[in-house]
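Support request, please re-run this one:
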Amino acid sequence: MVRISVTGLILLQIFFPFNTKAQGNLLLTPKRVVFEGNKRSADLNLANIGDDTATYVISLIQIRMTENGGFETITEPDEGQRFASPYLRYFPRMVTLGPNEAQTVKLQVTRGSSLEPGEYRSHLYFRSVPAEKPLGEEEEAIVDPSSISVRLTPIFGITIPAIIRIGKPTVSVTIDDAELKLENEAVPRLKIILSRTGNYSVYGDLTVDHVSPAGTVTRAGMANGVAVYTPNRSRKFEFTLLNGGEADLKQGKLIITYSAPSDVKPEVYATAELMLN
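Re-run finished. Output below.
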C-alpha cells in the first residue's frame, strides 16, 4: 500500500482593518489609498521586521466584495464597478528588504482628467517571493520510499485598496435590521446590515454603546475598518459584543454608530437604536 502525503502552495490574501497592515514580517502603511480632489500621488511605506532578507512583488488586482464582507478575485468588473488599474502607475514593482529595512513605493494617478465622475477601485497586492534554497543544501531524505512528499511553501500577501474618486460625493448609509443574539450569553453577538446609496464606497468604524434603563452608558463593542465597496448596496455584518458584567444586555437599549475612521475628518455616517427586552 502506497501512502501519499501531499502538501502544496499556500496563498494568503489578507485584508486588514488596522492602520498598519502586517503579514509575515512585512509592515505596510497606510492601509488604503484614496485619490480625490487634487491628490494625484501617494507614498506607501514598506518595512521588513523579520530577521531575514525578504522580496515582495507588487501588482494590481481586481476584487469583488460579497454581501457578507468576503473578497473574491475577478477579471471583469461587475455592473456599476470601475477598475482603477488603467489609471494608476507605481514603482518599483519589486522590493527586496533586509532585516529592519524600509522602502517607499510611489503610487500615481495618470490620465485622471479624462475620467468620468464616479469611483474607480483596484487593489495593490504585495506578494512575498519564497527564498531560494542555497546551492548544495540537500533535501532531507525520505525514510519511507513508498511515500510521496511535497514541501509546503507558504506565500504571504497583503492587499490594500487603491481608489480614485472623481466628482462630488453623494453617498449615504443606514444601519438596518439590527439583531442581538444571546443564545450564548457569554458571547453576545450583534447582527446588522449596512445599506449604502450613492456613487462612493464607505469605510469606517462601528461602535456600540449600551444605555441602561437608568441612563448609564457603557461601551459594549466596536469594530474598526468596516467597508461597503461599490457597486454593493448592502453588507451583512456580525460581531461579538463585550460582556464584562457591567452591562445587562437584556434591558435598556443599544446605540449603534458608524463613523469615519480616526485618521480622517470626523463624520458620523449613520446611527441606529436597538431596544432590548
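The CA atoms of residues 80 and 231 lie 5 Å apart. Confidence is low (pLDDT under 50) at residues 1-18.
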